[in-house]
Amino acid sequence: MKINETNRIGAINPYQRNIETGRQEELKKSRRKDEVSISPEAMEMLNRSSDADRVKKIQELKQQVASGTYRVDADKIADKLLPYFKQSSES
Q1: Which residues have C-beta within 8 Å of that of residue 46, sequence separation ≥ 6?
Q2: pLDDT at site 12
Q3: Ramachandran region of residue 68, left (φ > 0), alpha (ψ -120 to 50) or beta?
Q4: Phi and psi at residue 42, in whole multiples of 5°?
Q5: Start and end of every Anti-sigma-28 factor FlgM C-terminal domain (predicted)?
Q6: Residue range of the domain that includes 86
Q7: Which CA distances in Å does 39 have to 3, 43, 48, 53?
């Protein structure tokens, strides 16, 4: 069997390379990075919430747990969970 004109395959390859290069350029353009900026108001709110208050609250809870005086208020937990489950069942 004799195969003629094997050069034709070589003519397709440059076309294919052009297509692949175009696709790569499109991918580069579509790969944008997201940016997030925090407003000055949000930064102020963050600074206002004192870490000292949080640390104090955590220490109090640790002491209650260690001494065995910490009690879970089931009514408070139910009050916080109920709206979540109502919203979940509606959707």
Answers
A1: 38
A2: 60
A3: left
A4: -65, -40
A5: 34-82
A6: 50-90
A7: 70, 6, 14, 24
Give the Cα separation of 55 and 51 in Å (integer). Answer: 6
Reported pTM: 0.36
Q: Does residue 39 form part of some domain?
A: no
As for how many domains the chain has, the answer is 1
- Indicate if the pLDDT at residue 1 is higher than 90: no
What is the 3-class SS of 22-38, one letter each residue? HHHHHHHHHCCCCCCCC
Q: What is the pLDDT of residues 13-72, one digit of tens each?
A: 666 666 777 777 777 777 777 788 989 998 887 777 677 788 899 999 999 999 999 999
Q: Which two tokens stand for residue 50?
A: 């004192």
What whole-number distance in Å separates Cα of residue 16 and Cα of residue 8?
Answer: 13
Residue identified by tokens 């709206």 is 83
